[in-house]
Fold:
Amino acid sequence: MPTCPKCGQQTDKPIKTWVLAPKGKKPLNIGLFKCPNGHYFRKAVI
Ligand SMILES: [Zn+2]
Structure:
């Protein structure tokens, strides 16, 4: 479960996810999360 980098709250599911695929690198699944305190942050999800 990802934690907010600003307040450390655990956040269960992303608002949205997308695939980030830089050239020559492995594609990553990125999720946009919103913590219970209203902070938005992005994190790679598996
Ligand atoms: Zn937060």
